[in-house]
Every structure is written in C-alpha cells, then in structure tokens.
Amino acid sequence: MSATTISPSAARTAARAPAPTNNGPVTDAEIREALKLGVRNRWWPVLPSRFVKPGEKPVGLTRLGEPIVLWRDAAGAVHVQVDRCPHRAVPLSRGQNEGDRLRCNYHGVEVGPDGTVLSVPGQPGCPLEGKRAVKTYPAVEVAGAVFVWFGDALHEEAPEFIPPPQLAAPDWERFVCYADWEMYWRYSLDNAMDPMHGTFLHANSHTMYQGDTQAHFVTRDTPTGFFFEKEGQRDVNFDWSELVDDGAIYVRLEIPYPPSGGPGGNFAIIGFATPIDENNTASFFWRCRKVQGWQRDVWRFLYKTRMEPRHWAVLEQDREMLAGCKPGLEKHEMLYQHDAGLIRLRRYLAQVTRKQLTELRAAGKA
User: Fold this and answer.
1) Low complexity bias: where (predicted)?
2) pLDDT digit string (tens) for 148-193?
3) Would you tell me which CATH number, out of the four given (1.25.40.340, 3.50.50.60, 3.30.70.100, 2.102.10.10), belongs to the domain 42-150?
4) Considering only the top CATH level, what class is 165-352?
C-alpha cells in the first residue's frame, strides 16, 4: 500500500481548522481525568519560601502539571511565571536572575516580572520586545510558603487569599513541614479524612496510642466544608478531620497533647496536598499551637529539640503506606462506615470539577 502524501498547504489548512466541539454533558471520565492534576480556581502552596532567595538562581518546578519558575527580585518580592522562554520555549529556570528580570541563557532574551519581554539581544527592536509573552501567576507568601493561584480560562484573575487563622493569626505559632511524595495527590487528603487510621497505623505514637479501636463516625456541615468526627470521643486521639474549601482546599485536624508536650493546648495540623503531576504530590503540613509570650518560646524549644523527629516519623508512616499509589485504586476498594469522610470528599471534588468543566464548555473554553 502506498503512503498518502499531504501537501504543505493542506497541512496548514488542517492545522487552522477549529477543533470539534463537544456540547454534551461532562462525563465521569472527563472529571476523573481533570482531577488527576488537582482542582482549578484555588490557591495552592508550591514551595517553602526559604528555597527562593533574592539574587539567586531561579527555581523550576512542576505544579498541577504546569512548569513554573519562581524567583525573587532585588527587593525580595517573589514572582512566579511559566517556565518557558517565549523565544524557543526552553526553561527560564535555566537562566539568570538579574534582580529585576530573568535572562534566558539560550539566546539572552530578558523577561520582566509581569511577563513582558524587555530585551532580545540577538535582534533588537524585533516584535517580541515589549510583548507580554510569558504567563505570570498571582502569588503570595503565607506562613513560610509561596502560594500560587491556578485559575482556568474563565478565572485567571485571583481573589484575595485569606489563609486559615492558624497560619496567620498572631496568637498562633506554626512550623511548616514540606516533602514531595510519590502518590496521587487526593490520596493524601483521603488519608487525612480518615481519622481511624491513626488508631492503628500510628498506635505507637506518643500522642495517638489512646482511644477506642472501634468508633461510629458522623459528619457535620460548615460554611466552607464539613467535619468528619468520632461520635462520643473528643480530645483523646485523632478524633476528627475538617475539610475546608475557602479559596484553597485543605484539611484541618487536631491531636491532643499530653502534659509533657508543654503549653498551648491541642496540636493543630493544617494539611495541603499540591499535585505535582498525576503520580506525585507536594505535601505541606503546618504544625500549629495557640501560644503567646513565654509559652510560645517553650513550645518552640520543645518542638525543635524533642517533638519534630517524632512528627516526621508519623508522616513517614503515612508516606510509606501510600507510596506509589496511582489514580484508579478506587475500583479495588471495599469501603465501610469509617470511610464516609473520604467518600464525601471524593464526591465534593467531583462536583466542583463537574461545575468548572461545564462552565468552560458553555463558554467555548473547554
């Protein structure tokens, strides 16, 4: 059979032809595919602030499946842009931080903080100069981490980020823990919305060895999500989780501390699971206590000298349990009443994603 030859003009015509549109309802398969890379129109933590220093080399990352570059200008402000030079599409993160711009090492193209091409040394005055050609992401720094707005085509402008009070209020002290985990991002949230696993997996922890190994769970709605909690047990173990969707999606929980844990009441955890790609997650856990004055100093000392390694050991147990877990394991599950929290979480994320995809399709942006 002879090969079919396509003329260059026909190829160009085919390339310009509009893609077929799908005006039908969004399918479950489309929702599953979209969720592999997270939920859009939300703020996501992407990296601890300490990794991005003024005047130093830009940092290239992948978050929500997108290549991004982080850098600080000479005044210390952080900037986040797509990690792609507008000339030949090579990573800007392999270039130089000039203090007020990035310079691509490949051909010297210079890009400003707002994405405008400031200079093309190889051809001064070319049309690329002065063009806003590099996507720039809204970014803020909160509690020692850089948060980035990942909007869809209908929501590129970011609303103000209002962080959890545990990460911003002056009467709270917090430490950020960050690690990249090899697993589908939603499984980290599933884990946090499963308080019962603490009774078994973390039974040897100094804070989670008490409490009943059997429990009945109930859900309780909030304006921004819901609680999933053990009925009749409070401040004993890992007794409840709260899903919060308030401009950002995260889980809040508390672990009661014994007197040896020092002042400050329960130990709060604010957990974010930022997708890197469909098989890897940037995990952020803020460990917080409500302390002031001398109690804050005591808590910081105890945490850094005695408790931090224990907390990393608990996280490592979670990481080992979930390492390598990829999307699609749900078809093998046989769930029961203790899993009602993660079931509701999954349904909620699917509903949010269905709404977003439907709006994009209606606007012709899908």
Assistant:
1) 1-21
2) 999 999 999 999 999 999 999 999 999 999 999 999 999 999 999 9
3) 2.102.10.10
4) alpha beta
